[in-house]
Specification:
Layout (H helix, E strand, L loop, with lengths): L3 H17 L13 E3 L27 E5 L12 E7 L5 E9 L13 E3 L7
Antiparallel strand pairs: 1-2, 2-3, 3-4, 4-5
InterPro entries: Ribonuclease/ribotoxin
Keywords: Hydrolase, Nuclease
GO molecular function: hydrolase activity; RNA binding; RNA nuclease activity
Length: 124
């Protein structure tokens, strides 16, 4: 589980990384900031939507990107959870959702790279 503070921090870090990558002399290859295409899942789960974030506008009109949340299980390694931001009509990036890979799917199995939206849990 991730707190709202951790999600907001990851969104902020994604904005900082985006600004850093505007320097043409820097390599984008090792950056944790990646394009997010919201492609349909290869193996959808039960009643889930075909795409990870159903409320997103088409990526062809407004590009999106994903940035990893911290890995609490194995610090220093990539986390299966990501924050997704999308460029809006006014040009700024807006938070869209938290997504994650299904950890029960083994490497190389169908749907291994599928993303699923992580729903918010309200604190009691």
């Amino acid at each position: 589980n991730y707190s709202g503070r951790e999600v907001r921090k990851a969104v902020y870090e994604s904005h900082k990384e985006s600004e850093r990558l505007k320097d043409p002399t820097l390599s984008k290859e090792k950056s944790p900031l990646k394009p997010f295409n919201n492609r349909p899942n290869a193996v959808p789960k039960g009643s889930c939507n075909a795409t990870p974030i159903s409320s997103m506008t088409p990526v062809s009109k407004h590009p999106a990107r994903e940035y990893p949340l911290p890995n609490k299980v194995a610090p220093g390694t990539p986390s299966p959870a990501r924050v997704v931001t999308q460029k809006m009509a006014h040009g700024r990036q807006a938070f869209r959702a938290v997504i994650a890979h299904d950890q029960s799917r083994k490497l190389g199995s169908p749907g291994y790279n599928d993303h699923f939206e992580v729903k918010e849990k309200k604190q009691k």
